[in-house]
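W.,

You were right to be curious about this one. When I first looked at the sequence I had no strong expectations either way, so I just let the prediction run and decided to look at it fresh. Below is the sequence, 413 residues in total, followed by the output.
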Amino acid sequence: MASTYRVLSERVTDLGRRGRTTGLRMAKTTLAAMLSYAVADWIGTSNAPVLAPLTALLVIQVTMYDTVRESLQRVASVVAGVLVAVAVAAVVGLTWWSLGAVVGVSLLTGTLLRLGPQLLEMPISAMLILAVGGDQDVADSRIYETLVGAAVGVLVNFVVAPPLYLQPAGDAVRDLAARMASLSRNVAAALLEGPWSRADADRWLNEARALNDDVARADRVVARAEASARLNPRAAPIKRQQPRLRTALTGLERCQLSLREVTRALLDRTYFVPEEELTAAYSEEVRAALAGFLEATADATDTVGELAGATPVAGERERVGDHLAELERRRDRLAALLMVDPHADPGAWQQHGALLTAVDRLRVEIESAARHSDETWRPTPITERQRRAVKRLVEQRRTRRAWPPRLRRARRR
């Protein structure tokens, strides 16, 4: 009953947080549309400057970085499309083949410019300008209103509470840790209760595999938090907490793989003993030791999730150290109980070895997840992608120059 209430409470809190974020974005979008229309009308771009609010509606995104990127891409699309249409209209009018040429050239140019979601805006702008015969006033108004809408959208998103997603990122990592801890406790409880079947082991393995979706979701939320720090004047908290979040998430992802290997070892063991002897697959002492290790794993995982998105507090390193020491102690006890003579029982030796390897890997990954860096995170520059592309082109040119003359001539042919 308590767990059900906790789940419902978490869902209500999550819905409330999403509602506030959605409401804020709707308010900013509405404000940007009104301001862009007012500015375009004041400048006198056209009699009805609806393209300015339309641009503002399309460029407002959930993060400041995405808003600036969408704005630049849309401005580039419109300007390039207008230039293509004006150039074609100066030579020929609107015909089926000139329209096809404009669309083809626009799509090719937009692809080379990597305009992304705004790619289709380039041929759309080109067709609209071509339809009015390349009228200069229409072309100018379309460019000016696009610039106004993009600028107002960026300004509104910058001034009115640029969103940070630090709390959702911390919650996502904590939820992932809680689900992993819950699975560990469930397996531990089943081992302590007594007989467990092959179907139980198969269900544990499926539950461990299902955690892949939770890992992917947490990674998306943390990535969104990182994106929200770009070009954001309030990004200092994320820059401080990102190393802890990313380290914890990476460690938990590997812990999920190790936990899956533990459940896989338990399932594999059931295939090497007769169905009627499944209750004796592991002795009572081994089951108790493995259950104790999994319970300690759950406690340590919960601690990792709690500390991932929190501000560092005094004594947290000692707290994590106590959990890690307890994990190592219980792993040593389990290893001593699973020790068998490989000559006497080679099958059990291999299966116990697989289980111990997974258990030890799980302990190591929890330790890595709890290892937090005190460094401040710095997002990669916005131009990093372009810099890498230019660097690749330069390296390819240098490589070609190093080719023998005969190879270079064959390449030209």
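Here's what jumped out at me. Residues 335 and 356 are 7 Å apart (CA to CA). And, maybe more interesting for your project: The first helix runs from residue 2 to 43.

Coffee later to discuss?

I.
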